[in-house]
Amino acid sequence: MTKRTGPTSLALKKLIIETKKLGVKEKSPFWKTISEELSKPTRKRRTVNIRTINKTIQEGETAVIPGKVLSDGELTVKKAIVAAYQFSDTAKEKINKTGKAINLTQLMKDNPKAQNVRIFG
Fold first, then answer.
1. For the CA atoms of the chain, what is the radius of gyration?
2. Which of 8, 35, 36, 92 has CB 3.0 to 4.6 Å from 87, enough for a Cys bridge?
């Protein structure tokens, strides 16, 4: 059996460290959960379709996906923000038509206290 080494991407390692630090600084279990989800192997990371996000997100709310967003479906909720580690190209285009697609680093800057957010997947 092979030994688990963790994420090999330097950008992902940096993001995991930053989310842990932000969780400690803001005393927020939300960021700790995000860092744990990002530390998982790629095959176990969350993947979510736009259709799933559209069913449960409310206007003005932020959907956080510690994984990848795929392009199946349409986002009809206005002023919705979708933050994820990765987006497929078409998913990012579809989200930006009615809402806003941002990466997790941008969410950390815009909303460090993690208010009005929901984890999907």
1. 14
2. 92
pLDDT given for residue 9 in this prediction: 85
DSSP string, 31-75: HHHHHHHHTS-GGGSEEEEHHHHHHH--TT-EEEEEEEEE-SS--
Q: Read off the DSSP letter of residue 100.
A: E
pLDDT at 60: 87
Count of CB atoms within 10 A of residue 3's CB?
A: 4
121, 67 Cβ separation under 8 angstroms: yes
Rounded Cα distance between 95 and 34, Å, is 21
| Residue 62, token pair as written in the block | 């932020």
Q: Is 111 helix (H, G, I), strand (E, B) or coil?
A: coil
The Cα–Cα gap between 48 and 67 comes to 8
**SS3 assignment, position 19:** helix
| Domains detected in the chain | 10-119 (3.100.10.10)
pLDDT in tens, 46-104: 999 999 999 999 888 999 999 999 999 999 988 899 999 999 999 999 999 999 999 99
